[in-house]
Amino acid sequence: MNIKNVSLAIVAVCAAVLHVSADDASLQKFELDQAKYVPFDAATTVTLECPDAAAANWLRTHCAEWYGEQSPKVKAGATGLQPGKGAEGYAAVVDEAGVKIAANTLAGVRWASYTLRQLAIAKRGTFRTEGRILPSLKVADRPHLAFRAVHLCWFPEVRPAQMERAIRLAALLKFNYAIIEPWGMYASAKHPWWHWPNPTMTKEEVRRLVEIGRDLGITLIPQINAYGHATSSRGCTIKHAMLDLQPQYEPLFEPGGWNWCISNPETQRVLRDLIAEMHDDFGHPPFFHLGCDEAQPPSCPECRKTPYAELVCKHITGLADFVKARGAQAMIWHDMLLERGDSRWKGYVHHGTKTTATLADTLPKDVIICDWQYSYGNMKEVRKDWPTMAYFKEKGFPVAGCPWMNFNAMKPMADYISKIGGFGFIETTWHHLRGSDWIQMYKFASAAAWGTTVPPRPPMYDTAFGVALRLVGHDMKVTDYLDTGHLNYQVPPGWWVDNN
Ligand SMILES: [Zn+2]
To answer: Which of 70, 76, 115, 73 is nearest to 93 (CA)?
Structure first.
């Protein structure tokens, strides 16, 4: 079988799960011969051509980790291959002579090695694995967008191993950023009241994950909800990570607790402390997400003394400047910046007022606007244009397109961001990082960010996702049943309880 022109964000030797794209034939090439497998074991040599001298050692180390005693040899040398365009482009050839990889940077080497890893299977005909085989192939690939992120939520209900699996899997599917939202789980030393009891997002764990991400090619970005969503809890639960158990911190929040009280100078001080602490723990990444979605107009008497837009602008600008002084760029969600009654945004997410919409003129233009558009009411809708994103771009902001489970909209959204010269693409996952939603979100978003689409998933068992998720589990040396598969349980634990 000969398959051409596919994205290699996620691959498997099964035509049904390959991403076919006719549009990008000139930029991406993929020819795979499933009838012709070649050895990929200790007798194989991988020839690597990359200007980064550290790349060969990275590949050698990881081949040893992934393939153990049956690891191929890695040597630096000329390949005669032309890598895909840009910093992250790569090319690879697998045939009887061995494996050749050419890449412009270590990032391209990583993506090439992940492609091969997803395709390698155990040699046939033995009891235990005695080396692997790869299908003959020729590939040249490069991402569609330079900034490709997943947004991950560290809920109290999410096992820390699940966060690590989600980060590792995102890297394997060639996302290069992961925004981590703590949801009351970050164990601040400076403000230990700013979380639920027994938080699992400890400093040690954050630093460990940041290091893993750095090695695998995915940069972790911290998030703090600096305005609305101050409860660190889903609004529909009415939980509040601080005020439910520690009412003494009431002055920091608007009555009811959904927003921070932003006229209180203590709020700005606390948020700066938290930003600095998280930015340190995350190893000083180049971005910091400040949240700011779904805020309510201020209700406290002090906040109401200042015109709303002026108050919010001062608050966000103060934090964005603080982030900038630390060498990073602030990101915020977009919805407050679009007026609810403005007919131009009909059918798109827009939660602002006439007042807050003026922030599109007053906020610093280097704040990245994360425009979340979920095709509410029609998750199957395929739009071609995203006027809200064009609006922010025209206003002078870097803009990121952010889908959720509107899978059919992802490719057009990534294409649109590319067309208007937008900043990037952020796949939000919220409380759906499990089951088939997880499969769909990761597959469709990674394919879109690499410029291709995903055919309908196979029934019952998703081979490509299963292969990738299992590799991640192997890397983590998972031993707990609950940390396998895309659900913790096959059957709800209460199922076997007598319910007479
Ligand atoms: Zn207030």
So the answer is: 115
What's the 321 CA to ligand 1 centre distance in angstroms? 21
260: CA distance to ligand 1 center in Å? 7
Other C-beta atoms closer than 10 Å to the C-beta of 408 total 18
Å from CA of 312 to ligand 1 middle: 11
In whole angstroms, give the CA distance from residue 462 to residue 202. Answer: 33
Q: Ligand 1 centre from 270 Cα, in Å?
A: 15
What separation in Å is there between the alpha carbon of 290 and the centre of ligand 1?
18
Tokens 């996302």 sit at which residue?
A: 175
Instruction: Give the Å distance between the CA of 317 and the centre of ligand 1.
Output: 17
Q: Tens digits of per-residue pLDDT, 193-242?
A: 999 999 999 999 999 999 999 999 999 999 999 999 999 999 999 999 99
Name residues whose C-beta falls within 8 Å of residue 137's C-beta, 6 or more positions apart in sequence. 30, 31, 32, 33, 92, 93, 94, 119
Helix pair angle (160-172, 203-216), 10° resolution: 10
Structural tokens at position 131 = 């080396």
Q: At what angle do helices 106-119 and 463-476 cross, to 10 degrees?
A: 110
Residues 188 and 194 sit within 8 Å (Cβ to Cβ):
yes
Instruction: Report the distance separating Cα 173 and Cα 110, nearest Å.
Output: 11
Type of residue at 201: M
296-317: pLDDT as tens digits: 999 999 999 999 999 999 999 9
CA-wise closest residue to 468 among 169, 158, 126, 139: 169
How many Å lie between the centroid of ligand 1 and the Cα of residue 348?
29
